[in-house]
Q: What sequence folds into this?
């Protein structure tokens, strides 16, 4: 943390083809290529995303409560095989956006897996569930495979937030990231209290120093 | 407007490599850099030289590719690249020798697609209910989940290249063939299946190769040959992680400042090295550079990826050192800007950077050892269980094979056969019981043989290191000339690919009985095949792992004989397909048997009839199993009296370090045999001396620990002959230290 100027590490996890890359693209560059003629022509409207190998990284500054937070966003590969490597990406993350595809039921099972993994390894990482491709289910309810209420129930147990986003329309994406930044700023642990952190650590580590402090 | 009609909407033109240039320049600017001027500077003389090199490929190879290398530096003419790559990858040979047929496999895949409800020309992953498909009764050749992944990725691979781009004319076929390539590979190697990242490599090959089948075999070569990416895409992705660790060590030595800088930022190398390595730099924006990197990669193998990575870091180092802002550093590494990685800029640095193979190999060994060093685990214990540990790393069940026992590997079993038969021989038991053991041992070998049938072509079978090591004395080519009927002999894969489930083999466990043997690196004492058959004599070379013993001897064996030599945990084997002359067998058995009696070592022999009743599909015919000692003595016997037809000078010589007293005794027995003092022998010695020196100065001031040595021996993840050679060299180094 000391040198790098990224305050808030955010990691995106989820099944492959679940829309993680386009979510990040949308947020960072505000593009789903809707204004490019070529893009309009294509039936799927997302031809330039490539499968993520390892992970992609992007950073963005965001202003919350008159404080500027630099977010470093890790967009990880969804392929199950890359799971072994995912640790290096979510290590030390303050927030994790666990993505699932609203049109793919199995992707939510995968999301649950990631949640478990995070809970096990990163206790300070706040979890945000993001159901992607909302635009597909918005018009055609029959395509929805993941029920909203079951997700919220699940999230309640976890104390996680749920967003249903669409990278195509931009639905809820800014809100999602804003919420992450807001929670980060609100969290007293992160609140410009850098010197406090080592102090508390020292206190617990060495009772001797605790004596001194008293 | 006329021209525009030929391009998809929004595309201005295609550049010389086929990537789309868009009207809207701000759009996708990071994807590809398009060189403005078209360079076509291949002079006629240059072209001629290239053609000469390519047409006379065998000569190019025997010259050590030096001519090729110098030409490569000047650039490859695009028109000849396809041929060059095919030659380098040896895909023709693969295609001819493999039993796997591309076209029939495509038909299989198509049938599956019909069942699933899509077609390769109309890949709509969203239209299929994959869960239903997965649960269906039909057994698919390729699991539907794999098909789904491929389907999903085909759409996204090189989305701005004319061959794969939505809306371009060729794209329909291009994508379909990309799909076929990947799906057929998943069929070819179900263990690996499909992994993200493969599609880029497949796409690149399709761009270069006109024929889809050629592209497929090139891909197989790239993915399977130890020289290239074997193990890169397997389930655990272990090799890429190890390579990242190797690279970490490499930059600690080469670019210490940068390594410190990374460490201070707590930035893991894997974060940016993964896309570089796994996609073989296809993510770089300058396609000229990518092609040149590939040329070099196909020539030199995996070392090139380190070379390029070092070069890139070296170029960007100054800039990266100035900042600790991840938001500035990472994008530069993940998407190196065109001005950094354009061909004029980067390639000279790549050529100047040298990364030696042995360097990578030794680092790899150290990394492998360190990764085993879990805190709280005692070194002492590890040394004791060296032999067992090697197998843990080796675990790589293929084709549904399951591990039955972890601790008793095939090697230990085979070894224990020898050992126990040895003991039995001491007790004066009959050969009959040993015959049974031999059968069991043979069965073990066959078990190993059967699974990888599709891959058991000569090129892909992990070549036994010893044969390459000592090839000089016995050039393969000459052997092939003399014994053409053996050329296509399906040399069995070495056992060290992994432990296997040998159901019937009930070998007495060695545990606790012989601490001496368990200490040694059993696992790497894989069964070595001698490739150098001649009809009349089969000579077998095998450098003993322990103590740099190279043993060369000749036996008057006809084709059809299999010999295991297994004393001191070492194996020597000769395999051939046809049955030997029974008379000769008898004689040899008599000779070896006598040696057995004299020496208390085991000999077991199988006859043709035995074999038939055992296993019908058995491809290895009668075998003689003997320990090292009995082999040696067998020759002595053969030399002296039993087989008068053998001339004394057919025994070429024995060279090994008289490390153990037993060896010295053997050496004394062989006093009349001249030590190996051939040019090849000298070359090996001088080479190892060189390596000792550089390894010492470069890496470590302390001698290698025994555990390190065994790790080296047992790097089965990378069964490349080059790597396996390393232990020999290092061992010499080690010995020097211990003597001091």
A:
């Amino acid at each position: 943390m000391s040198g790098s100027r990224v305050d808030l590490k955010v990691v995106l996890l989820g099944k492959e083809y679940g829309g993680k890359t386009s979510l990040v693209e949308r947020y960072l560059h505000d593009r789903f290529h809707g204004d490019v003629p070529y893009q309009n022509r294509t039936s799927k409207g997302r031809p330039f995303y490539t499968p993520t190998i390892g992970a992609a990284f992007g950073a963005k500054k965001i202003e919350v409560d008159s404080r500027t937070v630099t977010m470093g966003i890790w967009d990880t590969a969804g392929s199950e095989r890359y799971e072994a490597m995912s640790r290096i990406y979510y290590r030390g993350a303050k927030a994790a956006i666990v993505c699932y595809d609203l049109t793919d039921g199995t992707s939510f099972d995968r999301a649950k897996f990631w949640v478990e993994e995070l809970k096990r390894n990163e206790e300070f990482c706040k979890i945000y569930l993001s159901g992607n491709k909302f635009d597909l289910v918005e018009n055609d309810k029959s395509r929805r495979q993941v029920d909203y209420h079951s997700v919220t129930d699940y999230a309640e147990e976890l104390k996680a937030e749920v967003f249903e986003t669409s990278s195509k329309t931009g639905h809820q994406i800014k809100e999602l990231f804003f919420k992450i930044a807001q929670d980060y700023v609100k969290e007293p642990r992160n609140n410009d209290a850098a010197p406090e952190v080592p102090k508390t650590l020292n206190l617990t580590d060495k009772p001797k120093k605790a004596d001194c402090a008293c | 407007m006329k021209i525009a009609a030929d391009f998809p909407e929004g595309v201005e033109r295609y550049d010389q490599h086929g990537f789309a240039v868009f009207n809207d320049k701000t759009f996708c600017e990071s994807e590809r850099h398009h060189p403005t001027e078209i360079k076509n500077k291949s002079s006629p003389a240059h072209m001629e030289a290239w053609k000469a090199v390519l047409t006379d490929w065998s000569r190019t190879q025997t010259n050590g590719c030096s001519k090729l290398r110098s030409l490569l530096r000047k650039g490859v003419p695009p028109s000849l690249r396809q041929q060059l790559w095919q030659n380098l990858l040896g895909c023709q040979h693969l295609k001819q020798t493999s039993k796997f047929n591309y076209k029939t496999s495509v038909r299989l895949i198509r049938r599956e697609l019909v069942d699933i409800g899509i077609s390769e020309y109309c890949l709509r992953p969203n239209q299929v209910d994959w869960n239903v498909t997965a649960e269906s009764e039909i057994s698919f050749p390729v699991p539907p989940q794999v098909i789904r992944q491929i389907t999903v990725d085909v759409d996204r691979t090189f989305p701005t290249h004319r061959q794969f781009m939505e809306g371009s004319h060729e794209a329909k076929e291009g994508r379909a063939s990309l799909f076929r390539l990947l799906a057929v590979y998943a069929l070819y190697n179900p263990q690996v299946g499909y992994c993200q990242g493969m599609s880029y490599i497949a796409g690149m090959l399709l761009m270069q190769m006109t024929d889809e089948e050629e592209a497929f075999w090139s891909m197989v070569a790239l993915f399977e040959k130890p020289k290239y990416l074997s193990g890169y895409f397997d389930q655990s992705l272990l090799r890429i992680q190890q390579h990242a660790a190797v690279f970490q060590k490499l930059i600690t030595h080469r670019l210490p400042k940068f390594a410190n800088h990374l460490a201070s930022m707590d930035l893991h190398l894997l974060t940016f090295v993964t896309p570089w390595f796994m996609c073989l730099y296809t993510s770089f924006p300058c396609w000229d550079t990518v092609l040149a990197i590939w040329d070099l990669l196909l020539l030199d193998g995996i070392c090139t990826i380190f070379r390029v990575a070092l070069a890139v870091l070296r170029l960007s180092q100054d800039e990266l050192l100035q900042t600790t802002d991840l938001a500035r550093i990472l994008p530069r590494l993940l998407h190196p800007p065109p001005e950094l990685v354009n061909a004029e800029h980067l390639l000279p640095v790549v050529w100047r950077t040298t990364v030696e193979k042995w360097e990578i190999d030794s680092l790899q060994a150290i990394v492998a050892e360190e990764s085993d060093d879990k805190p709280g685990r005692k070194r002492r214990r590890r040394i004791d269980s060296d032999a067992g540990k090697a197998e843990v790393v080796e675990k790589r069940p293929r084709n549904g094979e399951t591990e039955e026992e972890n601790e008793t590997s095939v090697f230990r079993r085979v070894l224990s056969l020898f050992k126990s038969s040895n003991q039995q021989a001491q007790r004066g038991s009959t050969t009959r019981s040993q015959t049974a053991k031999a059968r069991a041992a043979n069965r073990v070998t066959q078990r190993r043989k059967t699974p990888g049938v599709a891959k058991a072509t000569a090129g892909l079978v992990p070549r036994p290191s010893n044969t390459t090591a000592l090839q000089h004395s016995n050039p393969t080519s000459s052997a092939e000339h003399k014994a053409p009927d053996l050329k296509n002999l399906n040399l069995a894969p070495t056992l060290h690919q992994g432990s296997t489930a040998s159901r019937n083999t009930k070998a007495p466990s060695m545990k606790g009985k012989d601490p001496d043997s368990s200490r040694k690196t059993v696992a790497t004492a894989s069964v070595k095949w001698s490739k150098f058959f001649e009809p009349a004599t089969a000579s077998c070379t095998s450098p003993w792992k322990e103590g740099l013993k190279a043993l060369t001897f000749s036996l008057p064996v006809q084709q059809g004989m299999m010999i295991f030599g297994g004393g001191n945990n070492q194996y020597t084997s000769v395999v051939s397909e046809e049955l030997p002359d029974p008379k000769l067998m008898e004689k040899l058995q008599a000779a070896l048997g006598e040696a057995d009696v004299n020496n208390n070592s085991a000999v077991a022999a199988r006859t043709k009839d035995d074999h038939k009743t055992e296993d019908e599909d058995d491809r290895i015919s009668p075998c003689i199993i003997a320990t090292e000692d009995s082999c040696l003595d067998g020759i002595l016997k053969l030399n002296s009296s039993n087989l008068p037809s053998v001339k004394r000078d057919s025994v070429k010589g024995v060279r090994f370090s008289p490390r153990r007293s037993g060896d010295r005794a053997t050496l004394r027995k062989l006093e009349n045999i001249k030590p190996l003092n051939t040019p090849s022998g000298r070359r090996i010695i001088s080479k190892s001396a060189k390596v000792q020196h550089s390894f010492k100065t470069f890496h470590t001031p302390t001698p290698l620990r025994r555990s390190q040595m065994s790790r080296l021996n047992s790097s089965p993840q990378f069964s490349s002959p080059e790597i396996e050679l390393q232990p020999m060299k290092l061992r010499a180094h080690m010995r020097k230290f211990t003597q001091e």
In short: Chain A touches chain B at residues 1-6, 16-17, 33, 36-38, 41-42, 44, 47-59, 70, 72, 77, 79, 81-82, 84-85, 88-89, 92, 103, 105-106 (CB under 8 Å). Confidence is low (pLDDT under 50) at residues 34-47, 193-214 of chain A. The first strand of chain A starts at residue 8 and ends at 14.
